[in-house]
Known about the structure:
Strand order of the largest sheet: 1-2-3-5-4
Strand content: 15-25%
Order of helices and strands: EEEHEEEHHEEEEHHHHH
Distance between the termini: 49 Å
CATH topology of the largest domain: Transferase(Phosphotransferase), domain 1
Number of domains: 2
Amino acid sequence: xxxxxPEGTELVRRLGAGTMFDVALVREEGRVLACKRLTSRMxxxxxGRAALVREAKALALAKHPALPALVRVGSDGHGPFVLExxxxxxxxxxxxxxxxxxxxxxxxxxxxxxxxxAVEALADVxxxxxEAGPIDLVHxxxxxxxxxxxxxxDVRFIDFGAARFRGLDAALVADDRGTLPYVAPEVARGEAPxxxxxxxxxxAATILHMVSGGPICRxxxxxxxxxxxxxxGVRVDxxxxxxxxxxxxxxxxRSALALEPAARPxxxxxxxxxxxxxxxxx
Length: 282
């Protein structure tokens, strides 16, 4: 079945479907936008509709170049949809896999640049305010598929279906813990909801994936992976053989990936100097 582009738009190409969303690029009045619909399985599910509402509300509230901008929401015979600006970039997972296909890991200079840009972007997003005060935006599902590297090396964040933010209606609060293995251990154990600090952990785990070039936990199935992350976190021992990193860079990542929340920075801003600043291009 062809992707049902909303009335007034023209389908450019389908990007793919995940658990919640079916995404495509559409053209409206000369500009290309991202269109998100619920998958056929989720269109009748309350959790699916809540995820779409959370994404729309988060993007309407939080405005930053590292985030998509909400264009409009609507509904038609195929269900509800969200139109948002389409951000240019390659998912970090795709970047890692492209270099792996060449038999290499991501080059040290590129990895350092992306890491610093990612931490700085997250710090900015966590500090967003409007006339009512801090927005308190939590992504809730950061990982290699939701971090884009733009054409100029800038970093963007996508997929806010699990987001939390100021004023979120209790009826819309997600039970989603994020994507394994990039979930903070306390979130994986169900002891704490997604938070700004958990986003810092998830981004650090994503960077670990980039610099290691492969799996960051030993488990392969979701059930055992959940237990491993909850008890041990990701494999920080991989930092010992990450030849692209300096000792200070390894220490910075270890700090952000500490098993206990009290040993980690509360926000990404606390890592810009220590974590991001340590990962300076060579």
